[in-house]
Amino acid sequence: MDKERPIRVIIAKPGLDGHDKGAKVVAKALKDAGMEVIYIGLRQSTDSILSAAVEENADIIGLSILSGSHVPICRELLERMVQRGIEGAKVIVGGVIPRADVQILKDLGISEVFRGGSSFDDIVQAVRNIVRGAQRK
Amino acid sequence: MKTDGDAKQTDTGVKVKLYYTPEDLPEFDYQTSLGIPGKYPYARGIYPTMYRGKLWTMRQYSGFSTSENTNSRFKFLLDQGQTGLSLALDLPTQLGLDSDDPLARDDVGRLGVAIDTLSDMEEMFDGIPLDKISTSFTVNSTASIILAMYVATGEKQEVSKEKLRGTIQNDILKEYIARGTWIFPPQPSIRLIGDTIVYCIENIPRFNSVSVSGTHMCEAGATHVQGIAYPFLAAIAYINEVLKRGYRIDQIAPLLSFHLIAGGIQFQLFQDVANLRAARRLWAKIVKERLGAKEERSMLLRFSTGAMGSGMTEQQPLNNIARIAYYALAAALAGSRSFNLPCFDEAYGIPTEEAIRTSLRVQQILAYETGVADTVDPLAGSYYVENLTNYFEKGIEREMEEIESRGGIVACIENGYIQGKLSNQAYEVEKKIQKGEIIKVGANRFTIDEEQREMEVFKDDPQVLKRQTDRLNRVKATRDKNKVTACLHDLNKAAIEERNMMPYLIDAVKAYATMGEIVEVLKDVYGEADQPVFI
Questions:
Q1: SS3 for B342-397, per residue?
Q2: Interface touch B349/A73, C-beta < 8 Å
Q3: Distance between CA atoms of A91 and A113, rounded to whole angstroms?
Q4: Which of the residues A10, A13, A17, A21 would you substitute to probe the B interface, choosing the one with the greatest number of B C-beta atoms within 10 Å?
Q5: Any domain includes A1
Q6: Inter-axis angle of helices B226-243 and B186-203, to 10 degrees?
Q7: Is A109 a domain residue?
Q8: Tens digits of per-residue pLDDT, B136-155?
Q9: Could you count the other beta carbons within 10 Å of the beta carbon of residue A124?
Q10: Chain B nearest-CA residue for A13
Q11: pTM value?
């Protein structure tokens, strides 16, 4: 992969929750860190998110979930990725996520989980590490 | 006296002097600037006796999974001394999706109760006489349908319509800005709001048909001044919709209430109080001078206050109880009629019973143990607070003028101007917090290592979806299908002809048409809103 190419990120709000301040500020922070970020908005289905990720050749799919539905949404998204044969993009999740659910999400295949109070620096660093790790494979 | 040299810039950008003197109130005249409580311009309060006459209403947002759960929850809260019910509806209900809709699956009963048909509403208020309580429904794009169900439930309980008390949020414009539960485009949505207001004017004069909210906008990044200016503009848009149908401002204004910010991520105790006092005075002027109201009750800014989760820290969550108490103090000092406080475990998920009870206890301690309710508007006459009140009143007017000069609030929502502005502001505040320029105790100052701590978290009921869809199927199997079809047909016709939709909605819900069926009919006529996406 071309080393000079900026990291490409899709940010989406799956499910029905409409609070997207978190999604927007994280998108801005990643953009300020030099990444190419596309926020695709509210009420996205797993398939619309994956189609956007394929179309934009995204390295990272960032999901913002505050409704408590993070486990079923992530499970479905990851299953659909396998079914559609989408490789290369890694999935990260942020929002109101109980601590006990972090490991559950990671076991499903989510690369990183950002709970309330995560710093932009941590998120930027984690995204870079995830993409670097994926490129090494 | 020169105190400017010691001005301190607060986190909200307001410059605060070392101390204040009479020179900071050059044009202050007691009668015109403040007046007595309950008299124009209502700076001190909208009622003559305020909390001496009646304490604020103590509401905490609640609503769980299914109508049976919510019914027992309501009975518990009434038992605990809560005086009004604040009802959370799940997202599918707020978006007009039935519980068996594939899009709804993950959200049924999750953030509130699921209401698919009138049967759910009947069950929720079983044994709770609707003339004895006041219910606040947090619902917007489907508010007219929920109101129709509440009216129908009252009818079944044989409570006459004019005795129903409560509030529907019914404030669609802030949904496009902040909360995201829009369905239809702004214009037909505003028309539906007009329908509910007209219905209430004619039938339920004590029902607050719209609760115009600034709180959600502040949560999305609005300053507390914008958190007054934008809901004022939204309210004026709704009022104009009804004025053009031939009603008078004095019939409309009393049905509007407001939900305004006291607390939150940009909380400043004295500024929040002054901002609300300024709002009260300015609204009275707007309604009287700009909208031409004649009756005093039209000029009253009846507001509840709230703050949501964003002021709460995930770290050291018990610290949040102290924050909640200061928010409540600000609300009381500002003369709010009803407080909705956040809960200390807000960053962890849906608040637990203990956290909700604690927020209620914070209100009760404030009301019964501190003496804060003993006198009306205790900060009046403070050089500082009156100076701030003048400052915020001008600020609110300036923010309103800015939006109006850009084509008005609907245009500024349709082109995404307001959404973009708010997300920029939210980003700047968040950066300041992360850099420690805005101090959050326990989060960026006085931190401890607490990796091991885990809180009790509200547990979802995994059976909810099945129970709710079973209920829905039972209702569908037993209702008169021909009647449903006929009602939906009439509804479609009324929507095309732009008639007042309320009577048609009431007929449809009484026939047990589902929320989803009704919304589909309306979508066919009104279309769906575009989503301007900006970062």
A1: CCCCHHHCCCCHHHHHHHHHHHHHHHHHCCCCCCCCCCCCCHHHHHHHHHHHHHHH
A2: no
A3: 9
A4: A21
A5: no
A6: 70
A7: yes
A8: 898 999 999 999 999 999 99
A9: 18
A10: B180
A11: 0.93
| Domain contains A116 | yes
Closest listed residue to residue B139, CA positions, set B83, B200, B209: B209
Interior/surface letters B276-298, b for 16+ CB within 10 angstroms, e for the rest? bbbbbbbbbebbbeebebeeeeb
Q: What is the percentage of chain B residues whose pLDDT exceeds 70?
A: 95
What is the token pair recorded at A103? 């490991």
B219–A19 C-beta distance less than 8 A: yes
Q: Report the alpha-carbon distance of residue A13 to residue A65 in Å, rounded.
A: 7
The yes-or-no verdict on residue B398 having pLDDT over 90 is yes
A74 touches chain B (CB under 8 A): no
Closest residue to B313, CB basis, from A72, A117, A120: A117
Distance from CA of A30 to the nearest CA of B (A): 11
Domains of chain B are 4-307+317-435 (3.20.20.240)
Distance CA A67, CA B281 (A): 38
> What 8-state DSSP symbol labels residue A37?
E
User: Which residue range(s) make up the domain with A99?
Assistant: 8-132
Q: What is the mean pLDDT of chain A?
A: 92
Nearest 5°: CA angle at B414, between B494 and B94? 55
Between CA B464 and CA B482 the distance in angstroms is 30
Domain-located, residue A113: yes
- Render pLDDT for B273-290 as a digit per residue (tens, 0 to 9): 999 999 999 999 999 999
Dig out the tokens for B171 from the structure.
Answer: 């404030």
Distance in angstroms (rounded) separating the CA atoms of residues A46 and A40: 12
Total domains in the fold of chain A: 1
What is the per-residue pLDDT across B23-62, written as a single tens digit (0 to 9) for each? 999 999 999 999 999 999 999 999 999 999 999 988 766 6
Enter the tokens of residue B40: 């124009």
Judging contacts by C-beta atoms under 8 Å, the chain A residues touching residue B349 are: 68, 96, 98
Contact A24 B535 (CB under 8 A): yes
The verdict on a CB contact (< 8 Å) between A18 and B175 is yes
Give dist(CA B235, CA B283) in Å, integer: 10
CATH of the domain at A126: 3.40.50.280
How many angstroms separate the CA of residue B89 from the nearest CA in chain A?
12
Report how far residue A35's alpha carbon sits from residue B141's, in angstroms, rounded to the nearest whole number: 36
pLDDT digits 0-9 by tens, B364-378: 999 999 999 999 999
Backbone angles phi and psi of B293, in degrees to 5:
-65, 145
pLDDT for B351: 82
Contact B103 A16 (CB under 8 A): yes
Question: Given an 8 Å threshold on Cβ–Cβ distance, is A39 in contact with B533?
Answer: yes
DSSP B299: G
